[in-house]
Write a structure and sequence with these properties.
Elements lengths: L8 H17 L16 H4 L5 H9 L7 E2 L18 E2 L39 E6 L14 E5 L95 E2 L21 E2 L1
Parallel strand pairs: 1-2, 3-4, 5-6
Length: about 270
Amino acid sequence: MVLKLIDRQRPALLAMTLALSMWAAAPLQAQDMMRHVDLSSPAFSQSEMTRAELEKQLAGIKDGETLDLSAKALNGLDLSGLDLRRVNLQSARLNNTNLRNANLDGVVLDQAWALKADLSEASLKGAHLFMTQLIGAKLDGANFEGARVAADMSRASLRGANFMGADLSADMTNQSMGLMRGVFASADLSGASFKNANLARVQMEFADLSGADFTGADLSGSELAGATLTGATVVEANFAGADVNSAKLFKLEGADKALNFSNAKNLDRAFRD
């Protein structure tokens, strides 16, 4: 059921503001906002417009303009295949939304909620995802080439995703908000490409990284404990300070050409050939 949330927009924004304020007050709990938000509320579970209404607004965008959908509730909509390059989705709520094959190149998705959303094969080249919540989302084959990704994608499916040249590293300039970085705990990243990506201090504990390509990637200080890297390519990947405790490092391609591999933390506790 489509809702008219004009009067309800303020409570939703208030909830988000409260969540962010509590987040800032607890740096060790950064990127764990769900405890402070009622995800069953209409603002986080329903939509305030239909696909047809959105398509009408998209058609009315004039040259040089941007459609502002920031903080809008678009939960559960079928937006598959849409060209959203000229849309501002900052703080939008896209939980369970279908964005398969959508074009989101260069789009700002900072602080957006997209829990269990489907972005399979979506294009997000050069997009900006800061404090974005994508826990449990489906992103198989999604293209994040050159994107800034400081998002929580824990338990997400990202098989064959492309992060070539993307920046997933920790933001060291914003410590009052906690450590903002890419989080992929227990995510499926098998076959993903991280060629020349910045993964410094990224959290990938217990992630499936089998067959992933880390050629030229910076993994310094990353958290890989319990992760599976079987068959991954690590040519010129920088492992300085990366924690590989209990990680599966079998059949690595180019391990002899990896940088600072011997300086990885807990290498003696990893599973190796």
